[in-house]
Amino acid sequence: MNTNRTLVNADRLRAWLPPMVAVLLLAVTVWILHRELQAIHYRDVRAALSALPTEHILLALLFTAANYLVLSCYDQLAFHYIGRRIARWRIALTAFISYAVSNSVGFALLSGTAVRHRLYSRWGVATADLWRIVAVNSTTYWLGLLALAGWSFAFHPHTYLEGGLAQGSVKWLGVACMAAVIGYMILSVVRKTPLRVRGFEMKLPSLSIALGQILISMADWALAAAVFWALLPAGGPSYGVMLGVFLAAQVLGLISHVPGGLGVFEGVVVLLLGPYFPADRIIAALLLYRLIYYVMPLVVALIFLVGDELRLRHARVQSLGRSLGDYSVQFAPRILAVFTFMAGLLLLVSGATPAEHERLFWLSGMLPIGLFEASHFLGSLVGVVLLLLAQAVSRRLHLAFYLVLAALVAGILTALLKAADWEEAALLLLLMLVFIPSRSFFERRAALFDTRFSPGWVIAIVAALGASVWLGMFTFRHVEYSNDLWWQVALQQDAPRFLRASLGAAVTLLVFGIWHLLRPLPHTAELPSTEELAEADRIIHAQAETLPFLLWLRDKALMFNDERTAFVMYGIRGRTWVALGDPVGPAAAAPGLIRAFIERADDFGGVPVFYQVHQTQLHHYAELGMAFAKLGEEAHLPLEQFSLEGSRYKGFRTATNRLRREHVGFRIVEPEAVEAILPQLKSVSDDWLASKSISEKGFSLGFFDRDYLSRQPVAVLEQEGRILAFASLQCGPTGEQLSVDLMRFAMDSPNGAMDGLFAHLLVWGREQGYQWFNLGMAPFSGLTHSAVSPFWNRMGGFLYRHGEAFYNFEGLRAYKQKFHPVWEARYLAYPGGVALPMVLADIAALSAGGYLRILR
User: Fold this and answer.
1) Closest CA relative to residue 726, chosen from 774, 772, 685, 671
2) pLDDT band at 807 (very low <50, low <70, confident <90, very high)
3) Is the pLDDT of residue 800 over 60?
4) Do residues 349 and 249 share a domain?
5) Summary mean pLDDT of the chain
6) Distance CA 65, CA 96 (A)
């Protein structure tokens, strides 16, 4: 019990630690911003925005377009490196969407790789090649950063850095950065053998590709910095100094893992550029930089995805090469969630800043002042609602679509009524116009808030409200506080409106949080009812596999598709949601069920995995961004080739002859007669368990259960009416596959009893017309020949060769090889990253009935 509690606490720590570190870094930079902005006023920032020349904004837009064009060259060069040919427009499109998403969402390696995985896998790029593309892109990214940072530090050192380091140290740091880049080029010339990192093998690029990497990355960083430089006023430091500031801020933003480095980047820039520009000019430039470089490309990516879905519906195009299809369904809701969150933040910021008094006076001639006050207050409440609904939007919930539309309408009305803020209303209307044609993305009908918010969502929502409150405090810090402020109602009383709106927003969020924490959550993995089992049994008898019969152990939950034509059976241990095998049912239902299961696990903060999936089905999981680990190989014997005649199966003929001499008979007990022999079967099972000193397993393995054993035939060996050994059968409904599950024998059985049982069973299966006999898995078998997850292959291969203390892996495969079977790979599909060891431990505990029983 203590071990389980420790593991649960470790799971919670892993879930909360990264966002808490991000919050800590963000808090430090906000403190820096607060300190640096003490001398400026809110209206100074607005004046700085108004004073920026139009040509500067146009130049920033031009640099942004050029930068995203250069970003596509990352992938173009990577494809040249791996020697694959794909249409350049496809590469450019994928790169643009990848960077538009990763720049704004953050976690570039994960989010950008997920986009590439979903698109490139559709166009025939293998998983190993995809990871090589990611490795080349990551290397390219840092090469340009080192080269430009080295040049900036060596020849244009920033005065702040010079003061913080010993004399000349900054220049030597620049020389070291450039030396690292030169070293990479030299290594690409002299090293001919591939690099091997944790089992992943990758050859170094040629000198020409290495030069291309450096030039492309330098152009990328230089153009990104040029966007910000174009938005700064004239008369500041040289471009080289500004570039060093930009690179330092970007690196700290990347380290923080805050999406887009939001707040961290700004804090560093304000601190380092403070000696050169007034703070209001820096803040104005940062606001425009965020809008031009981050938000606008994300809007274009969203419009593309929504447009692709509309084109798909209009043309009824279903072919793989002509539309992105499921890709749009996966990413468009997530981008819409980002914009929903931004809309909520916009309303909160609007409630924390002064209104245009000219517009207020104009409206006051037509509407009562109480309407302004109510609209201002309600606008902030709608902002909180949109922050909360953003999570439901990312989950593609049906009800969320309509609630967001209603909230946007309410936000538009409050924006117009509180100060005729048509700019704010126009932005909300634009989002609403994008939402309306996206209706088909939102087909999930789960309850809105039946899940706990993840740590990332909680921190993001609280940070958004906190940022709006800080902005209001900054804006109205010249107003002397008094208790009377809360009750003052007048056209020019912006500070009281801010206080009331912020309090309303905070109370709304607090009430929601208390309600959400205290209310009981529904069970996440309820065992199936008799009616559900009957429905699942009907689906099972329309397909060929025997693995789905394990649902009759009644230890797994079921998830059906909407049409009730297919299902996934799964169990939960810790945070790991384990689906056993591929979805059961028609092939066309598999992609939707896989996606639904992943989303359901995500709803509850779980880690979705699929255990023992077929190699032919991996593309379904790849399209949803999942990684793979080979579990081993499953042995399938074609029954038409099995015969006790001849030399190939001589050993099995010898075993049957020995049993015959000892008067041991073989027979098949039909399901209706199994009840009568259950006491004898129980005695054999208990004897076998005691002799092996092991306990019953479950989930992916059968255990002794009266109802389960009585549903299928049982093969037995008998001697003078006493059962010596038995094997419960799983007879494929279509007559294609036959397998065994529970196999046990008494300790006083004759030598070779199980060989004889198998021989009789194979002959019987062939006579009954079955085509294949499933001999089951050989764990860790064949891992060294797999290109998927090299590190796992090495670890699993080591266990396979040297793990006799835990399990006779090599001996099991050698025994099954005696039947001369056909070996088929089986995989684990999981979200990737460092979760694999914990996932495997949870799966083992799920099968064993607890972590402490894994080795029993």
Assistant:
1) 685
2) very low
3) no
4) no
5) 78
6) 10
What is the arithmetic mean of pLDDT over 243-264? 74
Q: How far, in Å, CA of 724 to CA of 665, rounded?
A: 10
Give the DSSP letter string of 130-150: HHHHHHHHHHHHHHHHHHHHH
Mean pLDDT of 394-407: 89
Confirm if 348 and 380 have CB atoms less than 8 A apart.
yes
Pairs from 767-770 (Cβ < 8 Å, separation ≥ 24): 768/735, 768/738, 769/735, 770/639, 770/731, 770/732, 770/735, 770/736, 770/737, 770/738
Which is more confident, 267 or 411? 411
Spatial contact of 141 and 217, defined as CB atoms under 8 Å apart? yes
DSSP H helix total and E strand total for the chain: 30, 13
Q: What is the pLDDT of residue 38?
A: 57
454 in the same domain as 315: no
Full domain range(s) for residue 502:
337-353+361-518
Both 126 and 166 in one domain: the answer is yes
Over residues 357-367, the pLDDT tens digits come to: 677 667 766 77
> Residue 559, CB half-sphere, CA atoms under 13 Å: how many?
26
For residues 79 and 177, state if they share a domain: yes
Residue 771, token pair as written in the block? 């085509």
Residue 278 burial (C-beta neighbours within 10 Å; 0-12, 13-18, 19+): middle
Please compute the mean of the pLDDT values over residues 16-23 and round it to a whole number.
57
Residues 277 and 404 in one domain: no
Q: Provide the residue type at 53 as one letter.
A: P
Distance CA 686, CA 694 (A): 10
Pick from 46-60, 93-107, 561-575: least confident: 93-107
Q: Transcribe 759-785 into DSSP letters.
A: HHHHHHHHHTT--EEEEEEEETTTGGG
pLDDT digits (tens, 9 = 90+) for 431-446: 898 888 888 778 777 6
| Same domain? 295 vs 344 | no
What is the C-alpha to C-alpha distance for residues 76 and 737, in angstroms, rounded to an integer? 47
367 in any annotated domain: yes
CA dihedral 442, 446, 448, 452 (to 10 degrees): -120
pLDDT at residue 735 greater than cutoff 80 = yes
Of residues 37, 131, 133, 35, the one with CA closest to residue 81: 133
438 and 316 inside one domain: no
Residue 239 to residue 217: CA distance in whole angstroms: 17
| Percentage, residues of the chain above pLDDT 90 | 19
Query: What is the count of structural domains for the chain?
Result: 2
Q: What's the 3-state SS for 469-523?
A: HHHHHHHCCCCCCCHHHHHCCCCCCHHHHHHHHHHHHHHHHHHHHHHHHHCCCCC
> Does a structural domain hold residue 270?
yes
Q: b/e string for 800-829 if b means 16 or more Cβ within 10 A? A: beeeeeeeebbebbebbeebebebebbbbb
128 and 27 within one domain: yes
Q: Give me the torsion for CA of 522, 527, 531, 536, rounded to 10°.
A: 120
- On whether residue 460 sits in a domain, the answer given is yes
**What does the DSSP 8-state code read for residue 694?**
-
What tokens were used for 72? 């596509």
Question: At residue 317, does pLDDT exceed 50?
Answer: no
